[in-house]
Design brief:
5 helices; 112 residues; DNA-binding; homodimer; alpha+beta; elongated
Chain lengths: 112, 112
DNA sequence: TTGCATAATCGTATATTTACGATATATATT
DNA sequence: AATATATATCGTAAATATACGATTATGCAA
């Protein structure tokens, strides 16, 4: 951010925007879906399933991990990743709240 | 995208990722909330409510409009913006589906 | 018609993101 | 100990995002 501080926005908005950002790439959506289907899997499996290089997948995994959406643990020479279900549940709730807010308060009609 | 084509991902994932991207800035979340509360408002009101320059707010509005989340119409020398309720409803549903999928399929336990 | 107000767009600087190949690191295996 | 395998990180190029001020365009009012 060049001029305005991101801190001038409500903390809650900053937080949910950060998670939306983590979800804002189709490759990361795809990673989450694969992890969900397989319960857990290693990086190499994801690389096989995605049209991206190994280093790129690793980078996306890092983004998802930093956003708290996935967990990873070292398993020998591999890394095993899985969904952080609590984070997904929390995001589901926060999204619901946000969309409900937007939807409800913008009743009763389109005025433009 | 430098090398891999974004088209190699499922269309649905590309679409929802694009909406998440539009939601990935706290300023745009704030804009949506203001629009919801006021039913509709002109650009200038948003500028007053946000810690951003007029041109920046206009840019964010363009992003939200391109994502289909808001509608704008010219009203004399002003532009009046409002929430696209259908788009919000659709996104609410799609988000629910996605999070349910991730949540449900990653049952029954954390395996890593 | 001239001037005023509003908002969009332009130009631009900076930061971030995305992608890749290459390399480093860490753990098994021989 | 040496080798193989898996993944993270580094380096980097290109694209995109974010912010601002300045300018342009539009429509209303005097």
């Amino acid at each position: 951010m060049a001029f305005a501080s991101i801190n001038e926005f409500p903390k809650k908005d900053i937080e949910i925007a950060a998670v939306f950002k983590a979800l804002s790439h189709p490759g990361r959506i795809a990673i989450l879906k694969v992890l969900a289907k397989k319960q857990s899997c290693i990086c190499g499996e994801l690389v096989e399933d995605l049209p991206l290089a190994q280093s790129t997948v690793s980078q996306h995994l890092k983004v998802l991990k930093e956003a708290g959406l996935v967990q990873g643990e070292i398993d020998g020479p591999r890394s095993c990743y899985c969904i952080n279900k609590d984070a997904i549940k929390k995001m589901k709730r926060q999204c619901g709240d946000l969309f409900d807010f937007i939807d409800k308060y913008s009743e009763p009609v389109q005025t433009c």
